[in-house]
Each structure stands twice: as C-alpha cells, then as structure tokens.
Amino acid sequence: MAPMVKSTSRPKWQRLPPKNVYYYRCPDHRKNYVMSFAFCFDREEDIYQFAYCYPYTYTRFQHYLDGLQKRNMDYFFREQLGQSVQQRQLDLLTITSPEDKSDLENSVMQKKIKIPKLSLNHIEEDGEVKDYGEEDLQLRHLKRPEGRKPSEVAHKSIEAVVARLEKQNGLSLGHGTCPEEVFVEASPGTEDMDSLEDAVVPRALYEELLRNYQQQQEEMRHLQQELERTRRQLVQQAKKLKEYGALVSEMKELRDLNRRLQDVLLLRLGSDNLREGAEKKVVFITGRVHPGETPSSFVCQGIIDFLISQHPIAHVLREHLVFKIAPMLNPDGVYLGNYRCSLMGFDLNRHWLDPSPWAHPTLHGVKQLIIQMYNDPKTSLEFYIDIHAHSTMMNGFMYGNIFEDEERFQRQAIFPKLLCQNAEDFSYSSTSFNRDAVKAGTGRRFLGGLLDHTSYCYTLEVSFYSYIIGGTTAAVPYTEEACILGGSPQAWASPHPAESIQVWQDLTGRSGLWSPAW
Ligand SMILES: [Zn+2]
C-alpha cells in the first residue's frame, strides 16, 4: 500500500514510490502496524495534499449525477430517498427500461451481430506471426555475393594468393613450371643440393603458407559446421514460434466467437422473456457506507456507466431487470473526510438490524425501501450487493453468508465464481462465507437473514491498492482511469459481462439475469 500525493504544481494524484513507504509494528500502538513514508517537499510555494487512495468526494458524486440527469435518458431515474443528519442528499438511482419497451426492443433486436469467421489462415493475413521458414532463413543468413557460396569465395581468394606465391616461387627458381611440379621438384631428396640451396628460403616460406592455408581451411570447415548447426536450431525455434503463434490466434478467435454467440443467445432469450406483467426482478446495489473506501465509488460509477451505456448487454439487462443503486450511503462521512463513521460516530454497517431515523437516517431510508420491495408481491429482490474497499487484501473478492441449506449455500457461491472467471482482478480464493459475530449488523448479513432463498446478498470488496493476476507475482496498482473505464482489462471490472450471464443461466436455469458491469 502506498499513499497518494498531489501539489499545486503537480495537480494529478500520484502514488508515492513504494520504496519510500515503510511499515512497522509500533509499541506505542499496541504493536499494531504503522505506516510512515519519506517525502521531499521540493517547492516552497506549493500546497501539498496526501490521501490514502484516489479521493472521490461528495461534490464530485453530485456533479456526476447532475451530468447524467442532463442527458435525459428514459431508462435512468434519479430521486432523493432521504437526507443525512446534515441534510445532504441520499440519492437513489433506478436504471431500467421504460414501460413502453417496443421501440427499444426493436432497436436491440434489429442490431445485427456479426459473427467473425473462424479462420485458421489468419497468420499470413494479419501478419502477426511471420513465416520464418527454412527457405527464408537460408536467404536471411547466407547472403551469397554473385551467387557464390561464402566458402567458395574464401577458397577462391586464398587459392589465388597461394597460386600467386607459388608462381613467384617458381619464377625465382627460374623453372617456369606449374606449382605442383615446383612442389615435387622442391621436395628434399628429389633435387640436387645446389638448386635446393637456392630454393631454401622461398620453399620454407611456401611451406609455411601452405600450412597456414590448410589450417584456415580446417577452421573454415569448423565454422561452417557451427553455422549449419545454429541455422538448424534457429529453424526449429522458428517452427515452434509459428505453431505457438497460430495456437494463440486460434484461441483468441474462438474466445471472440464464443462471446458473440453468447450475445446472440442472450438477445434471443431476451425476446422470449419480454412478456406482459412479468415480475420485476431487482438488483440492489449500495456503496460508500464506509466513507474512506473511495474505490467503492469508482466501482459503483463503473457499474452505472455500463448500465446506462448502449452496449447490447446493457440493453438486455435494462430490459430484464430493475437496478436500484444507492451509491453513497454515508454522504456526511464522505463530506467530512471520515474513514469509517458517520457524522455521529456510528459505523453504519453495524446498524442494519435497527437503524434509527434520526441517528442513521440514510440507512433507515434504504432499509425501509428494501423491506417495502420485499413485501411487494410483484417485485423479486434477486441480488443485494454492498461495495466496500479493503486495505490489506489485494484484488477484488466477496463475502457471503453461510446457510444451513447446502443447496442454497452452493448456489450463493456461483456468482463469485463467475466473477472470478470473467474479471482478471477478482479472486475467488479470497472470497469467504461467514457468520462472525463481528459482522452482525452488516447489510449483507441482515438482508441474507431477511430475504428468502432466491435472493443473493454479498459484500463486494475491492483492494485499495492493487491486484495480482493469476499465474503472475507482480502487484498491479489500480488507477483512477482504469477503475472507472470498466472494459479495460485492468479495471476493477469484468470486460466480458456476457459470459457471466450465460454461465449464470446455464448453471441456474433462472431467467433473472444479472451481470457485473465492472
Ligand atoms: Zn467497508
């Protein structure tokens, strides 16, 4: 974990380098961990600000909602559900298709979904994997000037030198014979001593040169063998790379195709289920009950942005479901910069059992609405998700409830499993189900006890700091941009909500759809 800093001359929030941040157990704080950091205030006139995580203020939230309201979307409604102790707004958003769905339905169903051709010959087309075949390698590695092999060229040049020397040698002997004859004649014991005397110096030179020449030829042969061996190895590696590249591309194609098919299937299923008088299926999302947990707001904004988007999945979700979102349950705490409490010092996420209208008005308001919906026979509360941030764990993960009914317990585990499959930063292994006394009074625990077996209640936790992708060890810090732009692979978000929905249907056979928009 590394805190953030910004200053007048550097107006963008940045994380401090982790090497300047230290953690130690402090004896003055009952041996709890204390964080300290080194920081150089390099400009005297600057005003510096520090934060635990990217801030997300009440004002920013209000501006964001004002902006959405101005867009006049007929599937987005904003209302004031109540007020905080200091008279701040408790906003409630409803995202669902308007009653008259025919126009929207047509626009969704007429959208043609193009299914990509499954091409196995794409490698050449897209040029991602180049053909480093054997032929090519020869051309690349053995450039032959004037069509000759390099060894030939070398041979020729050395031979020419030797021949020239031999010729000179022969001339100095005054015989004018060919080199072979000179060599034979010059051999000891085959010539008379006088002529041998005359030839001693040039012949020794000649023999030296001949030895050098033979040595060079030997080295050349050796080098050629080495070169040949390297070439073969390169060819083999290139072949392997080519095969690997083809596999990767094929997998990518298949995954894309799968997603498209799911979208098509989803739209078809959607048309079947558009019937008059169907029960309203509600997904209820709350955030920022703990005001210091700003990632909660980033995730929540990502969800809202997706749900109001023109993505075909967002269309279908709006057709099938009613999303009720209370993104900021503790506006006073957020405004005042509290970490965990409300204005009056209450941890609101421990007062779901009996919230007071004057001490916990926002919680009271939301709870009343949920109970009202629960009692409405036309409404089915399918999901309740409360979004938090975690200061010591990495990735996103969930807390769920424990039920005596094994089947219900198993069903509850499906959603986090789907998230794990679809969001690379979500961890099922960190997800846990509990009934600790310390968590009594939380939204998830209270509603899990109140609602019937067809509802699912979770706490979604997101790391304040970073995530680790399966199979790797490096922690990737979350950034402000990544978490809002759901769809980016590094988002606090699943880029492929369609998969969740499809698998969800396969596993449960339920028509109630819910997809993580993050
Ligand atoms: Zn929390």
UniProtKB/TrEMBL annotation:
> What PANTHER family does UniProt report for this protein, alphabetically?
CYTOSOLIC CARBOXYPEPTIDASE, CYTOSOLIC CARBOXYPEPTIDASE 6
Q: Which residues form the active site?
A: 461
The protein in question is named AGBL carboxypeptidase 4
Cofactor(s) required for function per UniProt: Zn(2+)
**GO BP term, example:** proteolysis
Gene (UniProt) = BEND5
Q: Does the keyword Coiled coil apply?
A: yes
The record's comment on protein family reads: Belongs to the peptidase M14 family.
Q: Boundaries of each Peptidase M14 domain copy?
A: 219-482
Matching InterPro entries, A to Z?
Cytosolic_carboxypeptidase, Peptidase_M14
| Organism of origin | Canis lupus familiaris
User: Which Gene Ontology MF annotations are present?
Assistant: metallocarboxypeptidase activity; zinc ion binding
Keywords, comma-separated and alphabetical: Coiled coil
Give me the segments passing through the membrane. Answer: none
Please give the coiled-coil regions recorded for this protein: 203-244
Answer whether the UniProt record assigns the keyword ATP-binding to this protein.
Answer: no
Pfam families of this UniProt entry? Peptidase_M14 (PF00246)
